[in-house]
Design brief:
Strand order of the largest sheet: 6-7-8-3-9-10
CATH superfamily of the largest domain: P-loop containing nucleotide triphosphate hydrolases
Low-confidence stretches: none
Number of helices: 11
Structural class: alpha/beta
Bound molecules: adenosine-5'-triphosphate, magnesium ion
Shape: elongated
CATH class of the largest domain: Alpha Beta
Distance between the termini: 48 Å
Helix content: 25-40%
Number of domains: 2
Amino acid sequence: MNESIIEVQNLAKTYHKRGHTPVHALKGISFSVQKGQIFGLLGPNGAGKSTTIKILTTLIVPTSGKAAVCGHDVVAQSTDVRKQICAVIQDNALEIYLSVRNNFKTFGKFHGISAKEIDRRTDRLCELFGLREYLNESGIDLSGGLKRRVQVAKMFLIDKPVVFLDEATTGMDTFNKRTTLNAIREESHKGRTILLTTHLLDEAEILCDAVTIINHGSILAQGNIEEVKSMGLQLYTVSMTCQSDPAAWRRWIEQCAPVSIEQSENSFIVTVATEDQALDMIQRARAAGVFQYFEISRTSLEDTFIELIDKKTERKA
Ligand SMILES: Nc1ncnc2c1ncn2[C@@H]1O[C@H](COP(=O)(O)OP(=O)(O)OP(=O)(O)O)[C@@H](O)[C@H]1O
Ligand SMILES: [Mg+2]
């Protein structure tokens, strides 16, 4: 029988920073996660994944809407929520001056686990996550991907029923990633509920029982990976060129809730989620009379993701 462990209803978050225009990071998303599921929250950079995790782990409060973990409201009953969860958030770090073994020790101790039990669990996790050979190395000496693997392994040292992993596999090579994903899968078989974020569709495909894809704070598709693949993978690309004032027209395009916008001087390639949205955009652009050239084509969400990720990599290089 299904038992809902995480319930999110119409959740919205707007960040207000003095001197900046407000950022609508979440615009009313809803989903639920069942007990024992590995649930993937997918989306490109800036989609709102970490914001969702921060709300669910009680680090920030939503602007509106509701969320509950194990039946406890994340705002009104945040202490009760915290007792049920553990989390690897995107930018939290390992204790870099401690060895891997002592990272496990201090974390276990903090959570009231006896020394003997910590040793037993450390042993099991080393096996599961392939960390034995690194046990005596200091965090500072580990590669980025390995640091991340130790962080994820640490979360399974304690017996919390709900685990949040924000971009758990960042920086991991293929081998490292496979070991980590297998270990996460094994932990979920024990009945733990895992909510993870990723911008990698292939990773979600290997691991997740259910996924929700978000972009610009709104849901694009949700269901199991097969359902999402069959319904949500088709996106539409609108190419258009304007005669003048591209900055103003970019603002106009942004209001049409696109999945992504690529701009090169006066030309735009805009990806939107539905055919209706694409047609509507073209109709309105035509009516405005400033665009010279239109083209509409179909693309896959996977391609869009890959493009976005490639761009990010290019920027870093
Ligand atoms: N503290 C903050 N103040 C203002 N804006 C913020 C803050 N945190 C996040 N944002 C903005 O909210 C939006 C969603 O950010 P979020 O970190 O949730 O995205 P994400 O899906 O986790 O992206 P990534 O894949 O890059 O980790 C982005 O536009 C981001 O710039
Ligand atoms: Mg993030």
